[in-house]
Design goal:
The structure is a homodimer of 210-residue chains.
Chain A: E1 8-13, H1 17-28, E2 33-39, H2 45-52, E3 56-59, H3 68-78, E4 83-88, H4 93-101, E5 106-109, H5 115-125, E6 130-131, H6 133-142, H7 149-158, H8 164-171, H9 175-189, H10 194-203
Parallel strand pairs in A: 1-2, 1-3, 3-4, 4-5, 5-6
Helix pairs in contact in A: 2-3, 4-6, 7-9, 8-9, 9-10
Chain B binds a DNA duplex (30 and 30 nucleotides) through helix 7 and helix 9.
DNA sequence: TCCCGGCCGTGACATTTGTCAGGGGCCAGG
DNA sequence: CCTGGCCCCTGACAAATGTCACGGCCGGGA
């Protein structure tokens, strides 16, 4: 409820132009909201925010240049008064955790009804936290990543789909070491394959970082 | 360009409620367009279309229940006068081909600027075809799937991530046969791994069918 | 008719992948 | 200081995956 005061200024970041524009249309229907900027890449968020001074930024997680989590952190550092609402396709448990750690005020999946989005924005702007309850539960259940730093790194590199020899070369490790890290990751994820392990880790958002 | 006549009736199908609602908002801004139905599953398209009699249906490809391609075919069979515009996240070359074969009139990726969507809808309604030109080129380049029926089936099953023994049991084949089909698929896709082959095939839209 | 080419199915073989036991470095607690 | 725990690294071994050559089946030309 705006109360007739100046509207809440919004920045939208999503790599899909159509979705971005559609969200802008949706939010512009609200009297108390106004979209002041749109970007399609994570690394454009901070520069554009500096120029347009939004009150709330809606960031997608999957973006070229810089993922939404990293963009959140960068934006919080650059403009501490600007709140962040992460809006993402995938309800990966780890995403939520990482987003909150990075300083986001809210986390919404694209499955949520359209009518709730505007309210989420208002709540975030008011300083409240907005989190999908079922997703929060999952996050608790999934817990923090059990993978060690090296294991994550190897797994992340393995996503590209090379042989052990390739990975060893890329990471400057012995093949045996790579195999061992992979084996450990497989064990910890409960998978039986390298491919499986990658999928599980990805679904839990354990492969995000740099 | 409505000309004051009755507006074009639209049906929206997308599994992400937020995107669906946002698209509705975007399209409702146009004088000559009206959204008469929204569904979140592929198998709800035909029943809902029967009830609401849309002129144009905007279908996502990735949907639960029935994928957008199959939904296109079903809709064309049930209501031949209703045109179909496929709106999808991924510009997989094979998707376009399959969509057109299934009777779609247009194919748009979610990367396209929001302003063009309404025009695409109007063109489709007017009986024209709408296709992303760069994507069309890719489709030509990628060509039709080189995979044989069995190979596709094996690869599709392998997506779940089981061992050769699992696949053999699921498909009632010898392990050697499964290995052979996989090997052939790996060769044809130019991959060096099973996982790689799956990715390539998926990216080209070769794993769609039933 | 016969032959040719493609697809399917199969087993033996080489290669890759995953497991295991173990050594070295580092840090926190006793 | 020593000790225990954790992580990183490595090589040898077992298990899985991928390659190959082969035979049967079917349909479309010579």
């Amino acid at each position: 409820m705006s109360g007739g005061s100046t509207p809440i200024r919004l920045l939208l970041a999503d790599d899909q132009a159509l979705v971005r524009g559609a969200l802008a249309a949706l939010l512009s229907l609200e009297e108390d909201l106004t979209v002041v900027a749109e970007v399609g890449r994570g690394d454009e968020v901070v520069p554009e925010a500096r120029r347009s001074a939004p009150d709330v930024a809606l960031l997608d997680v999957e973006m070229p240049g810089l993922d939404g989590i990293a963009a959140t952190a960068a934006l919080r550092a650059a403009l501490p008064t600007c709140r962040v609402l992460v809006v993402t396709t995938f309800g990966r448990p780890g995403y939520l955790r990482r987003a909150m750690e990075a300083g986001a005020s809210g986390f919404v999946v694209k499955d949520t009804p359209a009518r709730q989005l505007a309210d989420a924005v208002r709540r975030v702007h008011a300083g409240l936290r907005v989190v999908d309850p079922t997703l929060a539960a999952e996050t608790l259940a999934a817990g923090v990543s059990p993978l060690t730093e090296r294991e994550t790194e190897v797994l992340r590199t393995a996503r590209g789909g090379g042989s052990v020899a390739d990975l060893a070369r890329a990471l400057h490790l012995s093949e045996g070491t790579v195999r061992n890290h992979l084996s450990a990751a497989i064990g910890k994820t409960g998978a039986r394959n390298r491919a499986d392990a990658i999928r599980v880790a990805e679904q839990n958002g354990w492969l995000l970082g740099e």
